[in-house]
Amino acid sequence: MTLAGRTVLVPRGGSWGERVCDLLAERGATGWVVPLVDTRPLHTAQVRGALDRLAAGGYDWLVVTSAATVGVLDASTDVLAKVAAVGPATAAALEGAGFAVDLVPESDFSAEGLLQAWELAGIEAVSRRASAIPSPSRVLVLHSELARDTLADGLSERGHWVDSVVGYRVEELAVEGATAADLAAGRADAALVTSGSVAKSLARFDLPAAMTIACLGPVTAQDAAAVGLRADVVAPERTIEALIRALEDVS
């Protein structure tokens, strides 16, 4: 099966959107970048206090659930804590900003997967500097205001002291009327839905019935269903490469 000749809606711009368009082009598809959401780091008193404690060694672990969180961190801060990332894309963003990453799940790049990796650190998880995680640990979890409590609650249930801090906000972007008309007219054969916020934003539009909705993992598929979008394709793991492969398999 092939994506050749297909047009795929890419819901974010910037370097991420360019990379996704390149991946699609390798398969003969055209990426159509329509930025639906953006992230904005928050610099609240709670965030500043947490970052001050982080720099002072007040936490054993920093848990990062999205590449967007990297914008919250001060690159000049000496992070004394070990760092856990929810997946390889988040780990790459952290490392690109100069932060060493100690723990990444091997396959399930979700809150549940990170909890499992936490339990199996040094055995089944990718642990680069430490083979075990003492309990209780002092853990800072930086997340979006839309994040579920799965990770923070799971760590607390495992006996850790958790400071759960909203570090960034997801904002829905305005879309020009001409772009909305192109969507309704079927310019895109498929749309990549990478998060619940993207699903909510996409659901604003009059979409053609023939458009294939490709969701990044089962949680995103559930979020899409909650706003009235069907999930035609669900990536088995939360990477953009897996999502494009899954879309290719049904095209």
How would you describe this structure to a colleague?
The chain has 251 residues and is α/β, with parallel strands linked by helices. It has two domains: 7-36 and 175-250, Rossmann fold, CATH 3.40.50.10090; 40-170, 3-Layer(aba) Sandwich (Rossmann fold), CATH 3.40.50. Helices cover 33% and strands 22% of the residues. Strand 11 (212-215), helix 8 (218-226) and strand 12 form a beta-alpha-beta unit.
Secondary structural class: alpha/beta
Report the radius of gyration as a whole number of Å: 19 Å
Order of helices and strands: EHEEHEEHEHEEHEHEHEHEH
Query: Could you say which overall geometry the principal axes of the C-alpha atoms support?
Result: elongated
The top level CATH class name of the largest domain: Alpha Beta
Low-confidence stretches: 122-132
